[in-house]
Amino acid sequence: MHYQFHDIKFQAAVGCHIENRKDDADIAWVGGGSLISDKIILTAAHVLWSPDYGRIRYALLGTLNKKDNTGLLLNVINTLQHKLYNRKLNNKMYDIALLTLHERVKFNEFVRPICLPVSDRKINSELIIAGWGEINNKAESSEKLLTGNIMENNVSCSNRLKNNFDPKTMICAQGVYERKDSCKGDSGGPLMAIMTNLCCSYSIEGIVSFGQGRCGDNPVGVYTRVTAYLDWIVQNAWPDEWKKFNKKI
């Protein structure tokens, strides 16, 4: 991936607490997420628990550099994964979750939410991934937010992954011009598209879920398809509004 898109203001880094760390770096940034309201971050279910550091406790907003002290550091006080998600299964279904922050975020020139993929949106066919994950399988993550352009290609995943790929609930995508791919540490981050009918705004089309083989060597990534879970997202992120809406129907 490469450096770009300084107007990505909804991107979050999510992290765990490191016990007994001798220096000040007591947070391990293990994945990403997307701010969808003033208190809720959308991410992947498999990111909620790190085998090395335990549960997600922190979220960082408002910065392109995860080591920048000017970013907005928040506590995660509640996590909710889809009830049908099962970490032990290999099919990666229902890989979606919500994080609740300890306080409401004030939107400003550095922090704002991403749009959910409503039915009347018009988007570019070229999709964008972003994250602070590993670079070229070097086992070290990027300090600066990286992005890459990819295109949906569900035929590729249907051929490679067989029964582990469901095009109704997943998006398969790969590099447009180069071997672009998401990698370890990008999980939970957004697969987004620029909306052509709403100036300078992004729609979150997918969530980084899993890949096959080494990042970039086999550059096909699988993303949770957000449109398949819109009702679940709204019901849990805005429960009061959801109840009012259903009473009117």
UniProtKB/TrEMBL annotation:
<dbReference type="InterPro" id="IPR009003">
    <property type="entry name" value="Peptidase_S1_PA"/>
</dbReference>
<dbReference type="InterPro" id="IPR001314">
    <property type="entry name" value="Peptidase_S1A"/>
</dbReference>
<dbReference type="InterPro" id="IPR051487">
    <property type="entry name" value="Ser/Thr_Proteases_Immune/Dev"/>
</dbReference>
<dbReference type="Pfam" id="PF00089">
    <property type="entry name" value="Trypsin"/>
</dbReference>
<dbReference type="GO" id="GO:0006508">
    <property type="term" value="P:proteolysis"/>
</dbReference>
<protein>
    <recommendedName>
        <fullName>Peptidase S1 domain-containing protein</fullName>
    </recommendedName>
</protein>
<dbReference type="InterPro" id="IPR033116">
    <property type="entry name" value="TRYPSIN_SER"/>
</dbReference>
<keyword id="KW-0732">Signal</keyword>
<dbReference type="InterPro" id="IPR001254">
    <property type="entry name" value="Trypsin_dom"/>
</dbReference>
<keyword id="KW-0325">Glycoprotein</keyword>
<keyword id="KW-0964">Secreted</keyword>
<feature type="domain" description="Peptidase S1">
    <location>
        <begin position="32"/>
        <end position="238"/>
    </location>
</feature>
<comment type="similarity">
    <text>Belongs to the peptidase S1 family. CLIP subfamily.</text>
</comment>
<keyword id="KW-1015">Disulfide bond</keyword>
<dbReference type="InterPro" id="IPR043504">
    <property type="entry name" value="Peptidase_S1_PA_chymotrypsin"/>
</dbReference>
<dbReference type="GO" id="GO:0005576">
    <property type="term" value="C:extracellular region"/>
</dbReference>
<dbReference type="GO" id="GO:0004252">
    <property type="term" value="F:serine-type endopeptidase activity"/>
</dbReference>
